[in-house]
Amino acid sequence: MTTIITKANMSEFVISGEFDIPSTTEGLSVTLRFKMDKTPVSEVVQSSLKDKRINKQIGLREHASEYKSGQIVTVDYKGGRTTVDPESAMAAKLAAMSDTERAAYLLAKFGLVVASK
User: Fold this and answer.
1) What is the DSSP string of 21-76?
2) Structure pTM?
3) pLDDT tens profile 17-71
4) Secondary structure of residue 20 in the 3-state scheme
5) What are the Cα distances from residue 98, in Å, to 17, 20, 93, 102?
6) How far is Cα 44 from Cα 24, in angstroms, rounded to an integer?
7) Cross-strand bridge partners of residue 36
8) Nearest in space to 40 (alpha carbons), one of 16, 76, 7
9) Which of 5, 18, 62, 100 sits 20 to 30 Å CA-CA off 116?
10) b or e along 47-70 (b: 16 or more beta carbons within 10 Å of the residue's beta carbon)?
11) How far is Cα 11 from Cα 46, in angstroms, rounded to an integer?
């Protein structure tokens, strides 16, 4: 029998065990081992939804004219991380920086010098 976890009964369930997830960043490949000992399912779900929210916000910024403030935007949850277009992610990252931060980042990361305005 399968138990369906819902928003209403989620607080009744916990997760225990070790879960390995490969991770690659800045050319370093490691395995992250998440150790859970009676971790509430609600904490795992909230954390996952937070990641989805961050990824969705990148898309919302790109299409801001299609939405209005206070609108409810339904997001289908298909599991795993939502793929983000690398160019969109980089544009969002650079847009969030000050001119000085952006120039320093581009110089350090790519050797690019940004001309001042």
Assistant:
1) EEEEETTEEEEEEEEEEEEEHHHHHHHHHHHHHHHHHHHHHHTGGG--TT------
2) 0.49
3) 999 988 887 778 888 899 999 999 988 888 888 877 777 777 777 777 888 888 8
4) strand
5) 43, 37, 11, 6
6) 21
7) 17
8) 16
9) 62
10) eeeeebeeeeebbeeeeeeeeeee
11) 12
Residue with tokens 């992610």: 89
Which token pair is 85?
């277009």
- The pLDDT of residue 116 is 63
CA-nearest of 56, 55, 44 to 5 is: 44
Which residues fall within 8 angstroms of residue 116, CB to CB, at 6 or more apart? none
Give me 102's structure tokens.
Answer: 């952006």
